[in-house]
Protein: Transmembrane protein 236
Amino acid sequence: MPSGRIVKLILYEVLEFACLCVPVFVVLERFASLLSFEKFNDSTAYWLVVAASIAYVTSVSLFVWVPLKYFILKSRGFFKEVTNWRPVTLAQALLCTLPCFAILIASSKVQLDTGIFYGHFSELPVSLVLFALICVDIVERIRPYRLRGQDSLDFEVPGPFLTHLEQVSTVSSQLQANRSANGSALRSEGISTSPSGHWADMDGISRSSNMAYLYSSHSDSGFLRFIWVRDPRHELFLETFVFWMDTVEMIRVAGVQEVYNSNWVFPIYILSFFSILRVVVTPNNPMLASLGVVAQDLPFLVLRICLVIVFGYVTPILYIMKNLLICLTFVYFHFLTKLKVFSGGSMY
Structure:
């Protein structure tokens, strides 16, 4: 009987391969139906597109996907040193998501050229493409974790945490308290001495205590201890779907009938694909923040403002504010705070 590790590996590989093939088949079948409708129910065009989809998936699987998975699992050659990016998610984006987006754009172009509107693609194909990409992202992130029992990896680095600080009265502080002018002035400004003899700011101590209380990982063991339960595997699913919400909303806008039957569908899908390329970078990579602004928030902000001007409120204002705040805070905290006028510690 195969071990649990082998079963988990087979499960992951089958799921990733299904996420590669199924969206391509579904989207191309919808495109074949569109061509058949445009040619007055010509079945030849339908079966040619279906045959092309089977040939594409077969060739990609044999010549790209299988060799890629073999070299990654064997850790040979170039992929042995890969640490900052993920080849499998890159292959998923290039071999599945990109062709599906191209077919979606082509279907809109065919309807615009002929003037006969078959109707935009239904919700199922578009959601299926994104869901397949999200599944591959989750599989690649959850591989190091166990599927049964408690997780064997540490969710947080263990260590001492700060819960409460008190000012300790020492001999040196009493001597300083007896001094006349200088000591009184310093105490009136909220400054005292620490046990080591150095001056300490009481506001700094209070602020440190508050921040330690805010970020403390101490768990309660009382009656409501089940509320404090945390598991990195569950939070991984939550963080992954939150990571994709902005892109999903932008692609949803392309499904609106008046937007889909216009030329605005081209920049929507193109910019959405560029935002999808962020998945190639590992989740904890420092480049992810800057890539999120350059590849998603800034282009989406400009595009959403244009869509609201042209079509009205086809996209929620909430996402426009989200893109705007992310761009402004990124510029402020990464660039403006380094200027001398913003770096004063006595301001706020």
